[in-house]
Structures are given as structure tokens and as C-alpha cells.
Write a structure and sequence with these properties.
Layout: H1 12-26, E1 34-35, H2 37-44, H3 48-60, E2 64-66, E3 72-74, H4 79-103, H5 106-125, H6 128-145, H7 149-166, H8 173-191, H9 195-216
Antiparallel strand pairs: 1-3, 2-3
Helix pairs in contact: 1-3, 1-7, 2-3, 4-6, 4-7, 4-9, 5-6, 5-8, 6-7, 8-9
């Protein structure tokens, strides 16, 4: 499928959607950048129909925005809008941590620990793209531990929307290591089974993340 380094399973539209989401979250496509249907069709070796379907889906998710005759572009936000989005994201992430602490199963704990070990391992390697994926998987493991797929979907939506902005905060290998280490205190709160401690810990974690993101954008 063209120059993609990853293989995605599913229909052509699914593959294009997944690859574009990856590009945007990794910062390969910047906020405000125009996305061209024909170029994408050539890149993926498909007709424009699945490309158009993928763009429609991403637009519905708020990751892309339609500019009418100017086409489709990656969503961009003012600093005020970004702050508002992160404010909502903080609350959802904190609720996920609170519920995960209260409902933690042995399997969920094992999945979160494995995700954190992957983050630590990849951070040491200095692979930025792989660390971003590992970090997303870490947070998704916490969402899953809530046992509430509706809250998990909501948290995932905010994570998709803010991906290209958060990616910019990882500028050096030291940033990756610091991020992975910050998970340790966060997990201490979640694994304590004290829902308030978990909630406060995640809010503190997300506030620090937002400040780093704002400084990088």
C-alpha cells in the first residue's frame, strides 16, 4: 500500500483512515495542512472512493475539517480552543483513572504493566514514532480498565483530536524517558485502588502534559 511503513487490515477505506490518523497523530501532517484526495489515491494505490470515505470519517471525528471549495485540511485550533479541549480531556482521563482504580482486574493490571514496560523500553531506544504509539497504548489500557466502553471511546476521541499537538512535546530522547518515568507515579495512584488518589494523579499528569504541549505549539 504505497509508502506506508505499517500494514493495516480491513477495507481500503479502513486502511487509508488508519494511515492518515497515524500521520496526523505523529505530526507528519500538520494542523491546517490541506489533504488532497488525488495524491492520497496515488499514494495508496486505490481509487478516490475509499479515500473520500476515509476523509469523511475523519471529518466526522473532528480530526479533519472541510473548507468547502478549498477541500479538506487537518484541524487546527487557537491556543484558547486547545486549552478548552485539554480541559475536557483532563476530566475524562481523570475519570478513567478513578474508575480503573476502583474496578481493576488482574488482567487489566497485567495489560497496563505490559504497556508501561513497552513505554520504558522504547523510550530508551529513542524511537519517537514508536514511543508515541506505545504511549497511546498505555493510556488505552487504562481506558479499557474502566470497564466502560462509552467512556473509553470518549477518551480515545480526545486523544485522536490532540495527537498532532501532543506529538510536538517529544523533541529529545530525554523527553521520551521523562514521559515514561512520569507513568510510574501515575500507576502508583491507580494501583493503590484509592479512586481519589488515582483521579488527582491523572489530573496532575495531564496538566503537566498540557503545559509541555502548549509550550511546543
Amino acid at each position: 500500500m504505497g509508502r506506508n511503513s505499517q500494514t493495516f487490515r480491513g477495507s481500503n477505506a479502513d486502511c487509508v483512515e488508519a494511515a492518515l490518523r497515524e500521520d496526523i497523530a505523529a505530526g507528519a501532517l500538520q494542523p491546517g495542512e490541506r489533504v488532497d484526495e488525488q495524491s492520497l489515491a496515488e499514494r495508496f494505490g486505490v481509487s478516490r472512493t475509499p479515500v473520500r470515505e476515509a476523509l469523511t470519517r475523519l471529518t466526522a471525528q473532528g480530526i479533519l475539517v472541510s473548507r468547502g471549495t478549498r477541500g479538506v485540511q487537518v484541524a487546527e485550533y487557537s491556543r484558547e480552543q486547545l486549552a478548552q479541549i485539554f480541559e475536557a480531556m483532563h476530566e475524562i482521563e481523570a475519570v478513567c483513572a478513578r474508575l480503573a482504580a476502583r474496578r481493576m482486574t488482574l488482567l487489566a493490571r497485567a495489560e497496563i504493566v505490559a504497556a508501561q514496560e513497552r513505554c520504558a523500553r522504547v523510550a530508551e531506544s529513542g524511537d519517537f514514532a514508536e514511543y508515541r504509539r506505545a504511549n497511546e497504548s498505555f493510556h488505552h489500557a487504562i481506558y479499557k480498565a474502566t470497564g466502560n466502553p462509552y467512556i473509553a471511546d470518549l477518551a480515545s476521541d480526545f486523544r485522536r483530536r490532540t495527537g498532532p499537538f501532543r506529538a510536538k512535546k517529544f523533541a529529545t530522547g530525554a523527553d521520551l524517558i521523562a514521559s515514561a518515568e512520569s507513568h510510574r507515579e501515575l500507576l502508583h495512584g491507580i494501583f493503590s485502588e484509592d479512586s481519589r488518589t488515582a483521579y488527582d494523579g491523572m489530573r496532575a499528569h495531564m496538566t503537566a502534559s498540557f503545559m509541555q504541549t502548549l509550550a511546543a505549539n
